Amino acid sequence: MVTATAVDLILAPAQAKTQPPLYGSEHPPPQLTAAIATLALGGAERIVLDWAARCVGRYRVKLIVLRRAPTEWPVPPGVLITRLDDHDPPRVLHALTALGNEIAAAGNPIILCHLLTAAERGALARGGAQPIPVLHNAAIGWIEEAKALANTPRVVTVSHAAARELREAGCRAISTVIHHLPASPVQSAQSDAARAYWRDRWAIPTSATVIGMIGAVKPQKVYTRALRLLASMRVQRDVWLVILGGPIGRDGTIAWDAILAQARRLQLESRLRLPGFVTHAAACLPAFDVLLNTSRYEGLSIATLEALAASLPVVASAVGGQGEVAAPGLTLIAEAEDDAVWLRAINASLAARPQPPAWRGFPSYRLWTLLHVLPRYKPEAGVLFVTANLNAGGAQRSLCNLTRELNKLRRLEIAVCGDSSTDYFYTQLRTAGITVSRSAASRDCFDHAEAVLQQLVRGRFVTMCFWNVDAKVKLLLAKALASAPVRIIDVSPGGYSFEEMQALHDFQHWVAFDEAAYYARLNHLVLKYAGDAPTAVRHKSRVISNGVPVAARRFNASAADSPKIVVSGRITPTKYVIEIIEGMHLLWQTHATAELHVLGRSEQRHADYAHRVIDTIGVDLNQRVFLHGAVFDAPERLGSYHIALVLGEHQGSPNAVLEAMAAGLAVVANDSGGTRELILHERTGLLLSRRDPHTIAAALRRLLDNATFARRLADAGQQHVAQRFSMAQMVRAYRKIM
Fold first, then answer.
1. Does the model's pTM come out above 0.90?
2. Residue 234: left if φ>0, alpha if ψ -120 to 50, beta else—which one?
3. Is 3.40.50.2000 the CATH classification of the domain at 31-177?
4. Phi (first) and psi of residue 668, to 5 degrees
């Protein structure tokens, strides 16, 4: 008899009393180190400092700056900085070698090198550091030719266009693309104040139209085109041009003089404002009505992205990575188009304020950290399993069964990317001597990916196996491990997993790593049954069904007992428990003493469904329908029942079916996923084409009316499991690919 209220019994608590310990609690966070040539007011420098400022609360962040610039970005509070400020190349290289030694000794040898030369990176490597070069521009703007990267295993580029140019130049290094998306802009009230402040400072009327441009003055920025456009527009508008940036180097001085000369020639001095370099130029964006970028080449303009994030329209040349991060309000013009095309685009952009881009606020800066926490290492052995949780369910039971057997043969650990609603499986795994840990206390996919990478490196694992884990975490880990000698295996439950991956179109775009890239990185995709796999990974697909222990005979229910039908699994809409109960109401018309026993409970997110289940049971609760709540020893209990009923959708290789067959029960299940490989219709069980109450009742009635037929199905089913779905077979199959 049920002693607790039905609702309390079948509704799972939000969390288990005991969760696996957080990984890394016994390890201090690693030091993250980056090196950059200067802190000049440029886009590359802005990216580095933005990353450092946003990571410093989580990690110890250190910057190495080689040279001092006349005007610089401020260093964020809390960031450690080492400045060389030495223009003698031999002394700089000697200092970098010493710093490389310090970095390696600090425990994390990775150093991302922004705008450093091959000689400078080589000096760091001689000291023991592991430098990763970062290219912030299109090929024409690289500080060295691609051959300078010949011995580099991995390169970071800020756009797909730059990565493509790198490949075309013959570089064989793995190229990782990181689109650095700026932080969310200031709020509207502050924007209004900033608009008034800057216009007053520049002596520009409040009602005037302001075209803004941001960037160092260099020939490739083609500011002279902007002056021509200004001259044409002022005929019809009260329009002004503001250029935030000053000349850099000899070529910059030439470009600056060209701006001044053209302004005089076109009589635009009164309409042109040249404030020079402005620290945090993004703060000036509210004063602009449109941002103009006429550059001949770009990596991926941070000024463009900041303007789009602020809902400011942008008209830019279609060069380099421009447009790779789409947003409302972005208009791209072929760099060679005549001025009339540019004018039409600017006027059209001024007509309406665009909506904020969907990516605004996305923490892409954390993609840099994934590379920072992944030093090159020599894998030794072992498997790191990564799973979403250790809740009650067939997938978790299968993982528990497999890892307890594999642990006898090779070293393994389990990383759990979330909280679990029960501690049963964790206790079993811990008792078996398996190290289990939570990767993070939050639900943030970056938190989990960073912790899992650190666990992978510290354990020197050779294989990572995804087992029902969040697709976002899978994408981040596969992207980070693009060049690592680590085998990646994705154990997929079937179509649902592929649909989940496809649904992450925006996320894939923002992290610059799509579904095709993910499947290309996999070593194996494990299917639970012979179903369809994405075309790109079919040649890597392997079918490994679940396995269960099989006893000689466990069926012990008496034929004289009231017919007992068991449902083992979670109480969720996808298990069709209400349809099962309605089917029992039909069955009772001819078999009034039949009982339904439900072994399982519901999660809080399905509380409404649990209440509907109880309402559907009605007066039969504890009379002919028995709710047992969470039952973790279901395989041992199953022999006390006569028939097992398993309904579901998106089924892989359902353990509930296998366990019931292994226990010697006649099984009724619906045709979903891999169930048809377990239930050979009318040979090892009954396979239903529908899940409606009438179909369910008819199948149960058929077995209850023909005990000989039911026993024959049960015997054949048990033999089928022993021959094709044993634990030994499952373990052997996984050992071959791990």
1. yes
2. alpha
3. yes
4. -115, 125
